[in-house]
């Protein structure tokens, strides 16, 4: 089953950078890995339309984790494109409660109140997923030749999507804003290191992170932390 895809880089509010969403096209239709921030909704819709993705042919939104900059357009797309949302159950509370710290270590009260405002994630953006993503889940029955890989660390429910061609959409476990490396924000660094070790045992052609450009294993290895 042939799969082609494109990266759509969407701006975050208040010039906080960019987040990537990936539009995958198969003979069965389209699949979206992550959905961006609600503040960039019109740009996302424009890019989907340009690619031929429209209501009726978007099958599934695969969310790598529950952060607002990745889930912000999921509820809107489900209602307007008649598609389903897939998310790991450990991060479902983040989307349902509108609280990215629902399953993380709690920051101070002010930060907890400010982040939803800054991200534009309000009640209209909250949702419950239609499909639970678990480690090893085969996505072929949904029309995508890929598997789900659990990669906790950034959040408890972080996942990656690994295609049969060896392309890994790795969410926020890794980034490549200036150089390929582990994401600087980790809720559980020990779990993140274990996730990294696990994925490095797999045959991966290229990594496609939530932030920054794609990269190969040879570019990543020199920047990885060493165990003491």
Distance between the termini: 43 Å
Q: What shape does the CA trace take?
A: globular
Q: Give the strand order of the largest sheet, numbering strands 1, 2, ... along the chain.
A: 1-2-3-4-5-6
* Coarse structural class: alpha/beta
Please give a structural write-up.
This protein is an alpha/beta fold. It has a single domain (about 5-225), classed as Ribonuclease Z/Hydroxyacylglutathione hydrolase-like (Metallo-beta-lactamase, Chain A), CATH 3.60.15. Helices cover about 25% and strands about 25% of the residues. The chain has helices at about 40-50, 70, 75-80, 90-95, 110-120, 190-200, 215-220, and strands spanning about 5-10, 20-25, 30-35, 60, 85, 130, 145-150, 160-165, 165-170, 175, 180, 205-210. Strand 1 (about 5-10) and strand 2 (about 20-25) form a beta hairpin. The longest helix has 12 residues, at about 190-200. The mean pLDDT is about 90.
Sequence-ordered SSE layout with sheet pairings:
Layout: E1 4-11, E2 18-26, E3 29-33, H1 41-51, E4 58-62, H2 68-71, H3 74-81, E5 84-87, H4 92-97, H5 109-119, E6 131-132, E7 146-150, E8 159-163, E9 167-171, E10 174-175, E11 181-182, H6 189-200, E12 206-209, H7 217-220
Parallel strand pairs: 3-4, 4-5, 5-6, 9-12
Antiparallel strand pairs: 1-2, 2-3, 7-8, 8-9, 10-11
């Amino acid at each position: 089953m042939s799969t082609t895809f494109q990266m759509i880089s969407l701006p975050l509010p208040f010039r906080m950078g960019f987040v990537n969403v990936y539009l995958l096209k198969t003979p069965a239709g389209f699949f979206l890995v992550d959905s961006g921030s609600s503040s960039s909704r019109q740009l996302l819709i424009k890019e989907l339309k340009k690619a031929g993705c429209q209501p009726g042919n978007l099958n599934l939104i695969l969310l790598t984790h529950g952060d607002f900059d990745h889930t912000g357009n999921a509820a809107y797309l489900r209602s307007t494109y008649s598609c389903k949302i897939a998310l790991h159950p450990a991060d479902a509370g983040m989307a349902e409660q509108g609280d990215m710290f629902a399953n993380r270590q709690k920051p101070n009260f002010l930060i907890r109140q400010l982040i939803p405002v800054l991200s534009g994630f309000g009640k209209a953006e909250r949702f419950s997923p239609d499909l639970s993503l678990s480690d090893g889940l085969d996505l072929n029955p949904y029309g995508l030749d890929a598997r789900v890989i659990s990669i906790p660390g950034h959040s408890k429910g972080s996942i990656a999507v690994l295609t049969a061609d060896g392309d890994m959409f790795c969410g926020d476990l890794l980034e490549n804003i200036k150089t390929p490396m582990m994401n600087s924000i980790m809720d559980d660094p020990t779990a993140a290191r274990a996730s990294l070790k696990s994925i490095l045992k797999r045959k991966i052609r290229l990594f496609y992170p939530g932030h920054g450009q794609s990269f190969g294993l040879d570019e990543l290895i020199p920047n990885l932390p060493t165990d003491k």
